[in-house]
Structures are given as structure tokens and as C-alpha cells.
Design a protein that fits this description.
Elements (H helix, E strand, L loop, with lengths): L11 H16 L3 H19 L5 H14 L1 H18 L2 H11 L5 H18 L1 H18 L4 H12 L9 H7 L7 H6 L12 H21 L11 H8 L18 H7 L2 H21 L5 H16 L2 H34 L2 H10 L7 H15 L3 H19 L3 H15 L7 H8 L3 H25 L2
């Protein structure tokens, strides 16, 4: 029987969230289609108002951006795939199941998911994405919880990653000789993590977002009659790997073949671990401890190999992970093209300069943050974003004698916020979880609104 929405009592908070979910489901297309729409929007805007908005510049910039991002795209996909292989290892799965068993109600699920995922994301954004998706699945199998709400909570907890140890902007400014270390190129100095990631104006709002959104999500959980639980069919589909870890699968008489024995031997795993660990020990002993994208991938590779133990087990885990990265393979080149158009035609510099021209030494970090909110929606990659916006906000900070770390992290903190409306990074987590992205984004729109205020207030008020 159809409910009378005019007479049925409804919690106002849940009514707002339900309306947001409805809007996103009806209006938001598939993320790949959305990226095409954004390409069209940026191209038209560049032709109309950008300083170098002519057709030849637009086309060449689009081409260079599309193919220039491929190396970085592979790095990001490897972070996700190697992180997935770690999270799927039997020992990690046992830990996730043990954690999920403690979540017996929606409120307890939120109290568990937010700190666990936030800590993982703070340590490494790839790990946070995967832990959030897999922990959500394990909880949803045991608790009568709305699955879209739970996945959205995981993604919201993940949002703080650009304020953590894997922040592309913070790491690049702390790394001597890094191509994106614009501060060092301009001043000859690096910015240590103590002035960015561990600074009170970054660390305090990061913790606040996690704590506040935990309780906001508890209040937003749908009433029992409106709960859409985890679909077991999606679980079966997601677990259908199409590969076998059985060493006898290659022969029909039950006798392991030479190939299968080689696949199950730990010698291959040990060889790669020795090579990788040896390189890291050599580099760190000569140059000191340092983390960048490539060493992060290598560390994830070594940990995953150790946890999976045999080469075939690790290869099968990566095969399963590859099913979650297909959408990223499609979207990265498209967003690379958008980034190329914005940079080549001068559109990004025009947006950044519009905010910088009205800034003061005190307000520049906040204006950097606000302009970053807009650019992130079109360039959803912190490293690529900094390459576009950094060359304009950094000279402004130096000329105005504003705080350089605060100005740089204003860009990074806005990435945290805008990612709650930009679906690019939500794609892998919803793919692993097995749910349509539109239902999730209705909830994360609330995270966008709350974190927007928290980070802005911290930039303005926290020393």
C-alpha cells in the first residue's frame, strides 16, 4: 500500500537525507558519464573566459593531460590493488571479522567504522579505502544496517586522508627534490610534516570531523522500516573470482604439476621480499627515512606478499583487485584531460587568482581553501590539483608574507571536503562494497556540509 507522505510522521533529519539520496539517484549519472559531462563543461568555460581559451590550445592541452597522467594513474591503481591484496589476506580478514562481530547495532557499527577507517586512511589513503569497503561488508552481513548508510560512513571517515601521512601535498613539500615541492623551488627550504600534518590547525579539525560525523551518522541511520540491507547476491558476485588457489587444479589426476608446485612455492615470494627490503634498507641508510608514492607501493607490495605467502595467492588477490580498478582506468585519463585543459588554457590560474587578489596575509589560507573546493570538483587528485593551483597560491603567500604551510594545507583540506561530492574516489569503495554510488553520495553530501565548516573554522581560528 502506498504511504501518504503528507500524513506519515517522519524524522526531519532522515527526511532531508532521504531527499538527498533521491536527488542523487535521479540526477547523478554513472561517474564515467559525469566525467564526460565535466569535460564538456570545462571545455566550454575555457573557450569562453580562459586567458588562452582558443581551440588549438584547448585540444593540445586536453591531449597532453589525457596521456600525461597515465604514469600517475598506474601508481594510484597499484596503491589500490596492493592495498586490496593486504586487506584480503587471511590474517587481515580474520581481524576484520573479529572487529565486525563487535558491531551489533547501527550505532555500534558507526562507532567502530569511523575510527578504524579514519586511522587506516590517515596512515595511507589506499589502505583506508579498502579497509572501509571490506569492513562495511563484514558488518553488514551480521547487523541489520542500511548498507548505503554504512558505506557512506566509511567513505566519510576516509575523507580525512589528505590531512594524513599519505597526503600528496604535505609529503611533496616535505621531500627534498620532489618535482611537486614548489616551496623548495621558490625558497630553498622544505616544510616538515610537523608544520603540516601534525600542526594543530590540521590535526584538530581532522579529529573533529571524525568525531562529529560519527554522531551525525548515528542520528542519520534510517528507521528500521526504511533500511536497505546488504544484498547477498552482491556478495556472491563479488566473491566469484574466476581463479583457483588450488594447487591441484592444473591437472586432472590429482597430482600437482611442476607449474602448480612452483606457484605454491614461497621461494618466489621470498626473492621479491629480499630484493624490495634490500633496496629500502639501502636507500634509507644513505638518504634517511622517506616515503613517496613509489616507496609506498613497494612497501604495500612486500607486506601483501608476506601476508599472502605464495606467488599464486598474491597473483589471484591482484586479479580480484583488478575488477575494482576498471572504472579508475576509464576515469583517470578523462580527468587528466580536464586538468590539462584547466592548466593549459589558464582557467585554473584564473580561478585561483580571483581569490588571491582579494586576500590578506591572514585570509589567504582561507581563500586558498575556498578556491580549492571549486578546483577539486574538476581535478579530483591532490597531486595533480597542487600542480595546477600551487604555482599561484604559493607566490601569493610569499609576497603577502602569509603562512606557507597553512596556505598549502588549505588546498589539501579542501580536497577532503570536496571529495564528498566528487564521486571519483568513491568509485573503488562502492565497487568493492558492491553498491550503487548514487545512494552513497546522498549521505556524503551531509559530510561535505559539516566538514566544510569545521576545516574553514580551523584555518581561520586555530593557531
Amino acid at each position: 500500500m502506498k504511504r501518504d507522505l503528507q500524513t506519515e510522521p517522519r524524522d526531519s533529519r532522515q527526511g532531508v537525507v532521504a531527499a538527498l539520496v533521491y536527488v542523487f539517484e535521479r540526477v547523478m549519472p554513472d561517474p564515467f558519464v559525469l566525467s564526460i559531462c565535466l569535460t564538456f563543461f570545462v571545455a566550454v568555460l575555457a573557450l569562453l573566459i580562459a586567458p588562452h581559451g582558443n581551440l588549438p590550445t584547448l585540444l593540445s592541452s586536453w591531449y597532453e593531460g589525457t596521456f600525461g597522467i597515465l604514469g600517475f594513474a598506474l601508481q594510484m591503481i597499484l596503491i589500490l590493488a596492493t592495498g586490496y591484496a593486504i586487506a584480503e589476506a587471511p590474517v587481515i580478514q580474520r581481524v576484520l571479522r573479529a572487529l565486525a562481530a563487535k558491531a551489533q547495532t547501527p550505532a555500534r557499527a558507526a562507532l567502530l567504522v569511523f575510527p578504524v577507517v579514519a586511522i587506516a586512511a590517515w596512515l595511507n589513503w589506499g589502505l583506508g579505502l579498502i579497509v572501509g569497503a571490506l569492513l562495511s561488508r563484514e558488518i553488514a552481513k551480521r547487523v541489520n544496517v542500511d548498507f548505503a548508510w554504512l558505506v557512506a560512513g566509511s567513505y566519510s571517515a576516509w575523507s580525512i586522508c589528505n590531512s594524513g601521512l599519505s597526503s600528496s601535498i604535505a609529503l611533496s613539500q616535505a621531500s627534498h627534490g620532489n618535482a611537486l615541492n614548489l616551496v623548495e623551488k621558490a625558497t630553498g627550504h622544505v616544510i616538515p610534516l610537523s608544520e603540516t600534518v601534525f600542526a594543530p590547525f590540521v590535526f584538530i579539525p581532522t579529529v573533529l570531523v571524525v568525531v562529529v560525523m560519527t554522531f551525525v551518522f548515528i542520528r542519520m541511520h534510517p528507521k528500521p522500516e526504511h533500511v536497505a540491507p546488504f544484498a547477498q547476491a552482491a556478495e556472491a558476485e563479488a566473491n566469484d573470482a574466476g581463479v583457483s588457489d588450488d594447487p591441484h587444479a592444473r591437472v586432472g589426476n590429482g597430482t600437482p604439476s611442476f607449474a602448480s608446485r612452483l606457484e605454491q612455492s614461497m621461494l618466489g615470494t621470498l626473492l621479491l621480499i629480499v630484493l624490495g627490503a634490500g633496496y629500502l634498507a639501502m636507500e634509507w641508510s644513505e638518504k634517511g627515512f622517506d616515503l613517496d608514492i613509489n616507496t609506498t607501493i613497494l612497501i604495500f607490495l612486500l607486506i601483501g606478499l608476506a601476508l599472502q605467502r605464495t606467488p599464486i595467492a598474491y597473483a589471484n588477490a591482484i586479479r580480484r583487485a583488478s575488477r575494482q580498478t576498471g572504472s579508475m582506468l576509464l576515469q583517470y585519463p578523462v580527468y587528466g584531460g580536464i586538468m590539462g585543459v584547466m592548466k593549459g588554457t589558464g582557467l585554473a590560474s584564473m580561478i585561483a587568482k580571483a581569490f588571491v587578489t582579494i586576500a590578506t596575509p591572514l585570509s589567504l589560507p582561507l581563500w586558498s581553501y575556498l578556491s580549492s573546493l571549486i578546483i577539486t570538483l574538476l581535478v579530483p587528485s591532490a597531486g595533480g590539483h597542487w600542480a595546477v593551483q600551487g604555482p599561484f597560491v604559493l607566490p601569493a603567500a610569499l609576497s603577502l608574507h602569509a603562512s606557507v604551510p597553512r596556505t598549502a594545507m588549505g588546498v589539501a583540506m579542501a580536497e577532503n571536503v570536496s571529495n564528498m561530492l566528487q564521486p571519483f574516489w568513491a568509485v573503488p569503495i562502492v565497487a568493492i562494497a558492491g553498491i550503487r554510488i548514487q545512494r552513497v553520495m546522498g549521505y556524503t553530501a551531509v559530510t561535505f556540509a559539516v566538514s566544510l565548516v569545521i576545516y574553514a573554522a580551523a584555518l581561520w581560528l586555530v593557531p
